[in-house]
Amino acid sequence: MTANKEKMTANTVGRLCFRNVNALAPMVRVGTLPTRLLSLDYGADIVYSEELIDIKMAQCQRVVNEVLETVDFVAPDERVMFRTCEKEKDRVVFQMGTADPDRALIVARLVENDVAAIDVNMGCPKEYSTKGGMGAALLSDPDKIEAILRTLVKGVSKPVTCKIRILPTLEDTLSLVKRIENTGVAAIAVHGRLKDERPRHPVHCDFIQAIAEAVSIPVIANGGSLDRVKAHADIEEFRKATGASSVMVARAAMWNPSVFRSQGLLSVEEVMEEYLKYAIRYDNHAFNTKYCLCQMLRDKVESPLGKQLKSAQTNKEICEGYGLQEYYTKTQAELQARREAIQTNHNHPNQPVLDGDVTTMHVKFERREYPGEFSPKMFLLEWSRKENLEQPRYETVQRSQDRAFQSMVTMTGKKYRSTLWEKSKKYAEQASAIVCLRVLGLPEGRAGEEYSGLVGKRKREEKSNETPDKEDTTTYFGARKRHLKHLKTSENPEEQRVTNYSK
Question: In which band, very low, low, confident or very high, does the pLDDT at 266 lie, cut at 50, 70 and 90?
């Protein structure tokens, strides 16, 4: 039986193993990047993100933050909903709140390349989670549970897990977990309390043990922080008491993440200082930083340090209370230097990269950088006319989760595309035109760029050694005038459409 369990685990979870691990539990507002990284430093094998609601995440755009060296999932209002980094990539589990299989799949596919696994919250009893049929509300709808998990297991390349609470009877609980196991999930986390029970109620270790004996996938025991897990050695005792494969720690880790440290607990003051360093390094929101530090202070929150912490409004002010002004200043200087270096690099066109049969570049269309009447699309159109070539063709797609656009332009049988997504179809087409123009060495109408009659770079160099003629010395506005005159007699609707856009 044990051999079969190990074989199934290996085949199911791939790179991430859920057997014999200590995990940081998903906790709202606590499970942000600083806490996760600190828990890994102290010995946690796996860290779960806080629960993130599918509707909000589906609207996010994935952004590579080159300054912080993170991947951010940014909402339309510019809030960072989820931030992760390379250090935790192979050990962070993204937990979502969902009650809809299709929406869950959209979110899972959005984040799957930046996390180690996807988890569905099916156990949180708080209104934040249960509204809309999510969280513990799913426990009364096993058909929906199956639909969500099967959709995710089939639709993403990373392991899928879920976290539940026990049901009023052992029979019903075992029936549910067996249905969950049959969906193909890699593991199941069990909070050993009923939906209506709270941390003051004792955890039902016997239920968790019965579940662990009934299924072949790893079972992660949760719910022992209040009376069972207070130090690292207690984690193993809780594992033995439940017969589970692994243990998930919540409150004990919230109060002191060094509970994962095999050498023993560190002082809260030392842990808080290390947490704050991560918060500064990764630009954690000041109010979230305050919240997490206050959880660590616990009954000392009304101490002089606690009062100073509660009154702080910025991470800088928080650092002053902990004597970390020098660290804050040094870190901010390093981030600013990186920001300036990146900006300098972005001011120069990057090198094109071939993606299949499409030439791509990291280009964003900034309207303010093109102040003239001619847009990049118009430059490309004019050049195609002068060279007697087929006009450029644009193919644009829209991303469902955030309604952003990406366009590809075909010119002389070759395809060009920006790797960045734009807020509108028009901007996406302009970005693809810029890529094409830069690869061909043609002017694009950017501010400060010398206008040269829409003639390619090589042609300009050839003509510079000849006697200039009237065509080559035509001014920008002369070219525009001839173009408008041409359009008055043109019957080509594409030309008319482009002209209307560039006005």
Answer: very high
The DSSP code sequence of 88-157 is GTTTEEEEEE-S-HHHHHHHHHHHGGGSSEEEEEE---SHHHHGGG-GGGGGG-HHHHHHHHHHHHHH-S
Cβ–Cβ under 8 Å, residues 246 and 23: yes
124 is catalytic: yes
- What are the residues whose beta carbons fall under 8 Å from the beta carbon of 279, sequence distance 6 or more? 34, 289, 292, 315, 318
Strands (E), 251-399: 353-355, 358-361, 393-398
Distance CA 185, CA 356 (A): 34
Least confident of 250-259, 426-435, 485-494: 485-494
pLDDT at 422 over 50: yes
C-alpha dihedral, 180 to 127 to 35 to 304, nearest 10°: -150
Stretch (H or E) spanning 417: strand 414-418
Give me the chain's average pLDDT, please.
Answer: 86
Residues 6+ apart with CB under 8 A from 275: 34, 35, 38, 257, 292, 293, 296
Question: How many residues in the chain?
Answer: 503
The overall longest dimension of the chain from CA atoms, in Å, is 95
Catalytic residue among 60, 85, 124, 162: 124
Contacts from 467-475 at CB under 8 Å and sequence distance 24+?
475/451
CB of 60 closer than 8 Å to CB of 78:
no
CB count in 10 Å sphere of residue 59 = 17
What DSSP letter does each residue of 159-214 carry, written as one string?
-EEEEEE--SSHHHHHHHHHHHHTTT-SEEEEESS-TT--TTSPP-HHHHHHHHHH
Q: How far apart are CA 78 and CA 61, in angstroms?
A: 10
Could you read off the pLDDT of 435-448 as tens digits, one per residue? 999 999 898 888 77
Are the C-beta atoms of 280 and 331 separated by less than 8 Å? yes
Task: Render pLDDT for 272-316 as a digit per residue (tens, 0 to 9).
Answer: 999 999 999 999 999 999 999 999 999 898 899 899 999 999 999
